[in-house]
Amino acid sequence: MSLLDQFVLFVASFVANWFSALSGGGAGLIQFPMLIFLGLPFGIALATHKVASVALGLGATVRHLRESPLERRFSLIILGAGLPGVVLGASTILHVPERGAILALGVLTLGLGIYSVLRPKLGLEHAPKNREGRALAGGMLGLFVIGFLNGSITSGTGLFLTMWLIHWFGLDYKRAVAYTLVLCGIFWNGTGALVLGMIGQIAWEWMPALLAGSLLGGYIGTHFAIRKGNVWIKRSFEIVTILIGAKLIIG
Length: 251
Fold this sequence. Notes:
By secondary structure, the protein is mostly helical. It is 77% helix and 0% strand. Helix 3 packs antiparallel against helix 8, helix 4 packs parallel to helix 8 and helix 6 runs antiparallel to helix 7. It contains ten helices and no strands.
């Protein structure tokens, strides 16, 4: 790649991951289409974006763990329920009609933003719930489905995890975004990248700019989110979900 292409990739990656760290997902809105625009086929762009998105998780982790560690038991629940879905989704995505899947994801993502706007107090207070019995089983089923989406269609699926943690498990936005960026960013995306890399191809020569932009964008965006608090994160989430949903629907 030329130096100009590397610079464009770095800027796009930084901006995408800065917004993603603020809202708890959505880096694929800018980064994934940019890879396709610059010439990568869909499957290679998907795998390449997955690898780069792990750096977002690393950048966010460095900042979040300076504030407070994640709850171990709840983290294991998210990983145990979500990772099998990631593997299944990544194993099947290259055989699924692209446009239909993206359109469905756009409608669901737009719905997330509208739902949050219509619930002004949603996610502003931390009130843990549904951590035992059937309620926990239902929550884990939701995590599996979101994991499948994360492994298959990459654009904005971290937003689904953020909203599920708020709606079903009672987290506030700040805690939900932390779980999403650390667990989804590193472990879910890392697993998806591994599976896609095994069955597809990764454009490693594109990685330096993508990794640098993801790492810096993730760290700086997380810093802003932590300092601003739940109301600011909620508004960022709503803006990003509505923009992503509209973009995916329009095409």
